User: Fold this.
Amino acid sequence: EIEILEERKNLLKGGNFEQYMQIRGPVIPAILIVIDNYASFREKTASKYDDSVMRILREGMSCGIYFVTASQSISISDIPTRMADNIRTIIALEQADRFKYSELMRRTRLRILPEANSRGRGTATVDNRVFEFQTALALDRESDFEKGRAIDALAGEMARVWTGKRARPIPEIPANAAMQDLEADIS
Assistant:
């Protein structure tokens, strides 16, 4: 199922990633799995990976495997409640109303709500507490296109001068993905 999770569990032998790093130093990398628009991912894969994602959510952090996703809601069509119950940190950017924040933060009533109509304002859960936060721009450019090009150029320069070990390439789901495309990336 998830080979690297099993490899990590065997390597850590009952301990966890943080303990291992304290004793041995940074000899194994943390792994960050990022899926943008989780509802679309579930739709394109016919929810085939739900059990694997659940296992990563339950066991991954202790093995240095972290999961980040973006979605519109916690619902049967986006992130199912059984998965949301295993998500430790939730970040919500501007929502339509206070009820939407409450739904996402999994609270019946929120005392803290972000300032309305302020780009980049949001709420987040940290250690089961809700905080308001302000995001920052990575680069100050006129358009998203210009920001994207500048970030690509910066990443390209960083890749050009990097001499250390490189991470495995990140698989991407093609716009018109077929099941064999996804299975080829996994094997």
